[in-house]
Amino acid sequence: MSSGYEGFEASWHDLFWEAEEAPGELPLLEEFLRGKEGQCLYVGSGSGRLLGPLVAAGHEVLGLECSPEMAKLSRKNFPDARVLEQEWQKHEGEYSAIVIPAFTFQLFPDPQKQLQRLREQTNHLYLTLFFPWAEISGDLPQNEWYFDREVDLPDGRSGKLETRHKIKEQTGSLVRKHRYTLKDASGDVLKREETEQRLRFFTDVALKNLLKKTGWEIEKEINNLGEGDEEDLVYVASLHLRPVG
Ligand SMILES: C[S@@+](CC[C@H](N)C(=O)[O-])C[C@H]1O[C@@H](n2cnc3c(N)ncnc32)[C@H](O)[C@@H]1O
After folding, report:
1. Which of 63, 105, 171, 235 could link 45 by a cystine bridge, Cβ 3.0 to 4.6 Å?
2. Per the confidence metrics, is the pTM higher than 0.85?
3. Is any ligand 1 atom within 6 A of the Cβ of residue 41?
4. Which domain holds residue 110?
5. E runs forming strands in 27-105
6. What are the pLDDT digits (tens) for 7-54?
7. CATH number for the domain harbouring residue 158
8. Same domain for 215 and 118?
9. Ligand 1 lined by 26 (C-beta under 6 Å)
């Protein structure tokens, strides 16, 4: 089983994001970058769906992406946006800002170590984290496949995504499997692929502790991508972080 971001997971990535009726993250990234001089690193820049528009808007952003298929898509879709094909944990450098949108940071093992390392690379960090309320509350069933999304492909075929998850409360991890199915116009299954990813998640207290231990403080927090009411559960938190003091 693949650990992700190759095959259907790479080539259908943007179609599935578009199918999700969630607000986009681009305005939040633009707001964070506004007025910041110098080069910014975008960790996990994927297919370039956010990197491309940022570069087109004149921001000095360098993409970093470990999946060769995602980096290739990005270069094809947004040739003006530079992308390094490398794992961030192996990347050395200092930047005026670092952005890690979507939930890429949660894919990293050992978040404390990674936050310490980020402190060595920048003084301005943007992170977006999601909290799996639906999985934890039982709104989504554990240990069984459920329908996630289905998209029409440009060639008349269709792509279905099903998900299966397991929560490991002790370690604050969500293990999530994705099953991608390619179907022809009459609905017959042509091919299936599965991937698995482990995502860390953090309660408010755990996150505050983690930030304190690693020398970061929250300068600004935007909940649920800037939509909804203050009383809503926070599914997604976008943080502007700065060094303490
Ligand atoms: C959730 S996707 C988000 C992609 C993109 N930021 C977006 O919003 O469209 C996570 C991306 O981060 C990449 N990634 C995961 N771990 C990485 C690492 N350690 N270094 C560089 N890229 C990584 C994956 O290959 C994938 O393309």
Report:
1. 63
2. yes
3. no
4. 8-132+201-243
5. 40-43, 61-65, 83-85, 97-100
6. 999 999 989 988 887 779 999 999 999 999 999 999 999 999 999 999
7. 2.20.25
8. yes
9. no
